[in-house]
Design brief:
This protein has 241 residues and is mainly alpha-helical. The chain contains 9 helices and 4 strands. Helix 3 runs parallel beside helix 6, helix 7 runs antiparallel to helix 8 and helix 8 crosses helix 9. The protein is globular, with a radius of gyration of 22 Å.
Length: 241
């Protein structure tokens, strides 16, 4: 299988499932995960593992977002474990108190976030961007009768799906360029490491705005205009000549 942006080429049952059905399932599973605790959370984890096996995209690809946000998840666990309460503290360090209740709450919250991130990655790995946009249109089409702008929402999803992998790839390139010029950032102190990463935000934002401007100019050059009155799921005023 070959990856193109976030999509992984394949012919699994998940690849053949309509995008609208996968989006509805993602919303339902995300809501269930947000409310799950204990055994229900373990059951949600088993469902995720089964979906990954069914998708045939590989464990590394499906769990890559979870690994990418590992420091954030550790921070979530630490904040809950040390700040939730002081009852039955196992260890006290000034205003901080490590408690079993806080640790359990932190692990629960981190697991929920990781599961939702993995489910989202599984959706983008088994759904082409254009299929995802069409799926959003189908799900929101009943709201068009109420005057909800369905086309801008679908367009926003399509742009986001295609922009995020590009920005992540450029971020990795900037990090490697910084390492070649200034050495490995990970070998420095915490403060110098933080300053180095903050400096990367400026070129990343500049690249994002530049790409957004290029996309806007390209769409205007092709005569793309969103209709003011949504009369259908594919309403446009402009067409390519």
């Amino acid at each position: 299988m070959r990856a193109a942006a976030g999509y992984v080429w394949g012919d699994s049952p998940l690849h053949r499932t309509p995008a609208s059905a996968k989006l509805a399932a993602l919303l339902a599973l995300s809501l269930a995960v947000a409310l799950a605790e204990g055994p229900a959370l373990a059951a949600a984890l088993l469902v995720l593992l089964a979906l990954v096996a069914l998708s045939r995209v590989g464990w590394r690809r499906a769990l890559a977002p979870v690994w990418g946000m590992r420091w954030f998840l550790l921070l979530v666990v630490a904040m809950n474990a040390l700040l939730l309460s002081r009852e039955g503290a196992l260890l006290e360090l000034g205003p901080l108190a490590l408690t079993p209740r806080g640790l359990a709450q932190g692990l629960t919250v981190a697991t929920r976030v990781a599961l939702v991130a993995a489910l989202g990655a599984l959706l983008t790995a088994t759904t082409r961007p254009q299929e995802l946009v069409e799926g959003v249109r189908r799900l929101l089409s009943p709201l068009a009768r109420l005057g909800v702008p369905v086309e801008p929402a679908a367009l926003a999803v399509g742009v986001t799906v295609q922009f995020v992998p590009t920005l992540l790839r450029e971020s990795r390139q900037l990090i490697w360029a910084q390492r070649l010029r200034c050495g490995d950032v990970a070998s420095r102190g915490i403060m110098r490491r933080a300053v180095s990463y903050v400096r990367l935000l400026v070129p990343i934002f500049v690249s994002a705005f530049r790409r957004a401007d290029e996309l806007s100019a390209a769409m205007e050059a092709r005569g793309y205009r969103l209709s003011d009155t949504p009369t259908g799921p594919r309403t446009r005023e402009g067409r390519r000549a």
